[in-house]
Design goal:
The structure is a homodimer. The radius of gyration of chain A is 20 Å and the shape is globular. By secondary structure, chain A is of the alpha/beta class. In chain A, the strands form three sheets. Chain A has a seven-stranded mixed beta sheet. Chain A has a two-stranded antiparallel sheet with strand order 7-8. In chain A, helix 6 packs parallel to helix 10. Chains A and B meet through helix 3, strand 7 and strand 8 of A and helix 3, strand 7 and strand 8 of B.
């Protein structure tokens, strides 16, 4: 097990990563007033774990799935916290995937202007990405994560024991963010390429998770609230990915990130931001995870959905985080029309 | 006009205080995408000011009053921001009293995880207290400010021009927090005593507002998120005040703060935390503002309401911030029963 410190300005965060991480809960929760948030799926699988680790603590069981990442679920948590008379020095434990973590994190940041938060991510995606860094959110009126806060959990417990119950689709989803991290960090990219045959191997995933968390911690420490621009690098693939995810649904977030990276790698290459060889090596890795890229009907309409993406600050302009040299990225701003044109062209020509 | 910097860890805040402060809006809002939040009362009085200073910016007009400080109003702001396609680099301007400021501040902290916020407090209470320091909130299920964030506005513009349209009751309300500040700062107390005859005089209020803001800035800089305990001092009078406010309503927040301070000064004296002379001098000042203290029926029930106050962290225990020596305070924890007993005794014996 590794211990990774995320030293942000607002509040430091300690991430325990690897086999046996859950044993840290003993000291983390010792003497604390605990309130647990999870969802139906996780509750079904880990009822015993919850009883064993959180004793008689109140448990709020949310309906499962991204479509419940909304105001109703948020207020379900807040109301149950009030019912349970949670105080300001209470500790909210979020046990689940990214949706649970994002919503519970938001509730923790809002209830009495902030109680202690502990994240126990149970999916690969959440372990490798969303549980670390303090982004919390709900979706609202079709806009992803448009209501949220930056709020660091005090502890994050990433234990591979949870990965063993995950379907392959969930591993694929987490690998989306892992490959993205590879595009931002040359050492992680090397490791992914060396292990291209065992990307879905749990032992390998345990190791690479810690690497990705460490990389993300470094970024978040420098730009906690996504103000300087650095933290934006974590959005590589997300502009196009989010747009397609919103428009087509069905596939997982991580798969859409990979599809987004694929499209954007062609834009980067076309505009000489990224050399052909590097773009190809990223696409090869993406192919390892995705196997095949689906055909998207009406992709221009889907691309237009990206224009509403909240990450895009300027009006009538879209921002893309593109791979540049190995381990480096570049931000590109495109007019709406140009962006839609590129996406159409790439979809027509290559995939 | 004075410029007061609030140097918090999360985000610095600049407060312009005094005549002509609104002129700073020219440079504050230059080139910014502005979204205005206000309420019906303020909109009625300052339609011209809004048109002049915020041009064609979208304006969200909330229903007026503390009973609308709720989730419905919060989502009204957020929805209008979405409708107006406010981006992450947009600027929310809160024009109004404490209720508008608290809700608009919360919306600003949540929308896309935080847009720029500018507070233009139009009441004495908001100028002297709530607009500075970054506390945002809504009430929920009868609990005051139970959902909120700490989020520093970039600018606060405290201009006395707004005070001229305020009824005396509103000045009384602001004086509640001013007298409270006097109980925490000996120089401010001296100034209040020297000016006891002109407490309601607008020229005096302009001067003392800057003093109170500077005092609060010092506290907030040291303990932004009310963690170390120091910021709690600002809650003097609030435990009992909030409880009575919740139970009896009608009177303003600031009046209840004064009534709370009155009750708590007797507790402080009784327990030898505060000398008789100092308690008397505070009560004399409170009397100057309140004139007469009403008779409260069933005060034990009202006091019990304090036990649900969110500031009270321990279970079956209540925390009071009491005056100690001049310019100093002490935190006292009492069991629920003892607290209710004291309040009953004081109400019966003295008032």
């Amino acid at each position: 097990m590794q211990t990774i410190e995320v030293k942000t300005k607002s509040h430091p965060s300690t991430v325990y990563c690897g086999k046996g991480a859950v044993k840290q809960l003993d000291h983390i929760l010792d003497g604390k007033d605990v309130f647990v948030v999870t969802d139906k799926n996780v509750y079904g699988l880990y009822k015993g774990f919850i009883a064993e680790n959180f004793g008689g603590a109140p448990v709020c069981v949310l309906p499962a799935g991204e479509r419940h990442k909304n105001r109703t679920s948020l207020f379900m948590i807040l109301d149950k916290m009030l019912d349970a008379r949670v105080r300001r020095n209470g500790t909210l434990v979020a046990l689940g995937g990214g949706v649970v973590g994002d919503m519970a994190g938001l509730a923790a940041s809002l209830y009495m202007r902030g109680v202690h938060a502990v994240q126990i991510p149970t999916t690969l995606l959440a372990q490798v990405d969303s549980s670390v860094g303090g982004k919390t959110a709900i979706d609202h009126r079709g806009v992803k994560n448009v209501i949220g806060t930056f709020y660091q959990p005090e502890y994050v417990v990433c234990d591979p024991m949870f990965l063993s119950t995950l379907p392959k689709r969930e591993l694929k989803c987490g690998l989306g963010e892992i490959v993205k991290t590879g595009a931002l960090d040359a050492e992680i990219l090397d490791k992914l390429e060396r292990n291209a045959e065992r990307l879905f191997d749990l032992a390998f995933l345990e190791e690479i998770t810690a690497d990705c968390v460490r990389f993300k911690a470094g970024v978040v420490e420098k730009d906690e609230c996504e103000r300087s621009g650095l933290r934006k690098c974590l959005n590589m693939g997300h502009t196009t990915g989010h747009a397609l995810e919103l428009f087509y649904g069905r596939r997982s977030h991580g798969e859409y990130v990979l599809i987004g990276m694929l499209f954007e790698s062609y834009i980067a290459e076309k505009l000489d931001i990224c050399a052909h060889d590097h773009a190809e090596e990223l696409r090869a890795l993406i192919g390892r995870v995705l196997k095949r890229v689906p055909h998207f009907k009406n992709i221009a309409d889907a691309a237009r959905a990206a224009l509403y993406d909240k990450k895009n600050q300027g009006k009538n302009e879209i921002s893309l985080i593109l791979p540049a040299k190995r381990g480096e990225f570049a931000e590109l701003r495109l007019t709406d029309e140009k962006y839609v044109g590129y996406i159409e062209e790439i979809a027509g020509g290559i995939i």
